[in-house]
Amino acid sequence: MPNRPRHRLLSRPRHRRPQLPCHRRLRCHRHFSTYREPASAEESPDELDIIGRHSRDESPDEIDFLTQHHRAFIATDDDNSDTEAIQPVKSITSDPQTWREAMSSDKREVWAKAATDEFNSMRDDFKVFTIEDRSTVPAGATIVTSKFVWKTKRNALGEVTGHKARLVAQGNRQRDGIDFNETFAPVARFSSIRSLLALAAANGLHVHQADIDKAYLHGDLDHDIWMTTPRGFDLPTDKVLRLRRSIYGLKQAGRIWNRHIDASLRDLGYTATGTDHCVYSRIDDRRRPHYIALYVDDLLMISPDLAEIERVISGLEQRYGVKRLGPAEYILGIQIRRLEDGSIALSQERYIMDVLARFHFDTTTRGTTVPMTPGLSLTAIPGQGTERIRSWYLQAIGSLLYISLGTRPDIAFAVSYLARFANNPGRRHWIAVKHILRYLRATYRDELVYACGETRITGVVGYSDANWGACRSSTCVDTSVSTMGYVFYIAGSAVSWSSKRQSRVADSTTDAEYLALSHAGKEGIYLSQLLEELHVQPVAPAHIFTDNEAAAAVAHDPVRVSGTRHIRLREHFVRDMVNRGDISLSHVGTSNMVADIFTKALGPKIFSTHCYALGLRTRHPRLGSASHSRGGGCEESTLSSTGAPRSLRAPASLAPVVGT
């Protein structure tokens, strides 16, 4: 087969971004000074000041320019100084969004080479497409457009490791039933990944990571799809690309890839669990379990034997290009650290700092001890906010939700509560969001620690709570609906948590707590089934603590129906699970109810105590990797080293929480 010519990029004139006048550029430094939080909504700045104290005479274009080109600061460890050294890092600017932006930037040559390599690799190495005449396209067929997506790749420390140009199809023009059928593709749940890491810490297992290169390009398409040629290449205008394989951007691409990698892992002897289809397990000849968690093209391999990890990677290398990343350090924006004692610490320090920098919170910003002021009550007022506030509010809530779902259960209630007003936020709602950001500024080093212990894990322990009319911030003022929450433990730290508004109005505390028990019971059953499929034997029933004896009595005794006749059938889930023996319930005092942190805003002392009970530790910036602390009124003398207060522990026969 003759060698095909390597396509070259058409030369483009180089454009420079227009510079602001000198006096404008000098003024931008004032926008990053310490911001004093207004004492009330009446004293708060208007919506133009949500990203800083911009003057009203500045145009929106100038404000956007300052937003994209601000300087961010991070705190660094300095063992030779009594204070943290403040060093500037490179501006956190967004990657190019269009071809013109990429070719007009000062990294034009880098982006051009990345685009050329991507195109030629897809055509010659992966045989993703063939170049054909437009006249060969059947009448009525859809020709999807193409574009490049630009990405600066960084490691866990934020250092640039490369530049990626990805050729994608704009699948928004695909027609259902003609260009694609099924599109759903599963990924591993965060709670499943945390459960696996908790097992790895408790049992001293190896945790390694690998990444599949150009994952979506390996699956064959089951539909005929044509795509326009990408911009910037010297291809005739009457040519189109006929896609032979899946490509990023197609609606069915994720599903095709998942089926492909699933078949590969099954060929290596692994079986997907029925509880989470992206968690795989295998038992070897010595009855030792091995695990794999799959999140699109990222693989987290957990095994007691490094030889098994090598076998898996070698098997995958026969089918894909695999990046060997070694011991897991960074996945899905979560940093993973193996401590000296074998414990595993999870944090989102880098992601949090990026979010803070995006909203102009630097190291001079005052921190807070709690994410939400106790007793805060907000309402939805139509027409209160503006489109600009709503845009920034949605960006902030989305970023905070990812943090709360990843490693920071301490902000789960505050974020869940403020997310209720995302449709029409006002100034007071934005002030509450900034309060969470200030709390994260003070606690960005916090880690979720899974202890290395000797006690065998046999199940999960959970705490369920609801707050009925006791605090205005826990009950939606507009609808009178209460908030419920739960947390479940493995290896001494939280692996699953939730803060959620109930689906209906509860007419009593018992009613609200009973609904919360059913909500928690579903997660308890899921985690118990997951442990069973991960070959943790024997698996004891999920044990849930509640601080409401009446709700526990209703779950245990079906005869008590006088005040529960209105409860729907599906809300009796916990009663059925208790009768089957899949869930056991116990009473715990309100002062020891850890799930209270998911139902309302708490004061600093009790909030810090519950944070410690969740397994959150603050990594001291100048001590060893295993040194942690948690201040703010936490009385460590009443708390155990594995993350749950001694008084909160279940009996030894029930608690799978790793002991000291």
Automatic annotation (TrEMBL):
Residues 137-373 form the Reverse transcriptase Ty1/copia-type domain. Residues 623-660 are annotated as: Disordered. Pfam families: RVT_2 (PF07727). PANTHER family: GAG-POL-RELATED RETROTRANSPOSON, INTEGRASE CATALYTIC DOMAIN-CONTAINING PROTEIN. This is BZ3500_MvSof-1268-A1-R1_Chr10-2g02788 protein. SUPFAM superfamilies: DNA/RNA polymerases (SSF56672). InterPro entries: DNA/RNA_pol_sf, RVT_2. Transmembrane segments: none annotated.
